[in-house]
Amino acid sequence: MLARIGIIFVINILLYHRTLRYSYVSDDIAIFHNPPKFKNKWHKIFLWITGSYKWSPKKDHIVNLLIHAAVSIMIYLAFGATNVSFLAGILFAINPANNQGAMWISSRGYTLPLLCLLSAMCVPHIVAIPLLYCCTWYTVGFLIPLVLLGSSHWVLIIIMPIIWWLHSKKFVGAVKIKTKMETVPEDHRMHIGKLVMAIKTVGFYLSLCFFPAKITFYHSFLQSCAGNTIMRKRAYTVKDIFFWVGLSSILGWGAYVYFNGWNMVSYGMMWYFVTIAPFSNLKRVQQEITERYAYIPCVGVMLALATLIVSYPILIAIFITGYAVKLTHIMRMYVDDYWLVESAVYEDPAAWYAWHTRGHKRWSNGSHKEALTMWVMAKLISPKEFKVLFNIACVLKLLKKYQESKQYLKEAEENIIEGQEELAKNVFKELADGKTPLLR
Length: 440
Prior knowledge:
Layout: H1 2-16, H2 27-33, H3 41-49, H4 57-78, H5 83-94, H6 99-103, H7 108-120, H8 125-137, H9 160-182, H10 192-210, H11 229-235, H12 241-260, H13 264-276, H14 297-309, H15 313-330, H16 337-347, H17 352-364, H18 368-381, H19 386-398, H20 402-414, H21 421-432
Helix pairs in contact: 1-4, 1-5, 4-5, 4-7, 5-14, 5-15, 7-8, 8-9, 10-12, 12-13, 13-14, 16-17, 17-18, 18-19, 19-20
């Protein structure tokens, strides 16, 4: 057992040691420059471990590496310390779909609750209670103890109503804040199209975990599905490979359980379906698609995969090699924020938001004409994107191309996202007053 724990740990060190030279990306930068207030040294350390405080890039990446390694080891231990769980731990450690959990500092809200849950499955029931309390303290971790129902640790679910009640106010408050910040009226309408989109989302993340061919910070899949008429139509159609992957996986799981009973494949897929459900876009309260949502569900997929291939050395070699090669290739995206955006455009050039963000990077460097080019590229992908149209109008006005600016401003006005009329009114006023209120 100790030898296998050591092997998993060494694999993590060998794969991720280069990240100790990497800088901050995305939200990390804002938090580093605007750190939260802390009461004392111990509170500061608590905020640092949980990812709310950024100490230094190297120290923060060390913690991320250790947490990801610990999760991989706990997968081995939590599921019986068998050949299957050992392989699952290795596959999880190197799976490039887990890149945000392994390498992005701001993902601690996903990695730590998973670590707490898996740890609770490795210790006596009394000791597990505080770990489950810590797990559900995180918004993302609030519902994931439901996976205990399908395991040999099912008795722990008895204590969960009390723990959920203790955290209920915090959880509801967090969901309300996210709903207010992230959603538009379309997100609150329920119809058959939402079910289609949810099945597609399940299929997308399952494909991402099993076969992570496209790894990027900004995916084109389901982009702007709630606020753009063109993208909404795409989101609600069944003419999409991910819809059929999702539907087949759900029906296939039911058939597998019926004919084969309850085993590690059955349980692994149950884990996946339960933990991906909050991110399925059936009732969206967060970003449509992002790879960090796959971190916890990926445990179940790797458990099922390991069970199926554990007796086939050639398949094991293919998956481990494929995952490791892809991971090594995409790691450069975390070198710094420049490479994060450049890699996003390279990996998924159909993601309008990647071009949009690239435009902001060019703008902040004073390259206004380059920024205009980036936003025009974004418009070619998504012609009715309010943010893009408005930003183009702003730049054209700055470049004294007033007639063209008015044209784009008119287009932007025609494509204001429902529910964001007040925001639009304010930025239009700021632009009329001579300011340049670019939208992110």
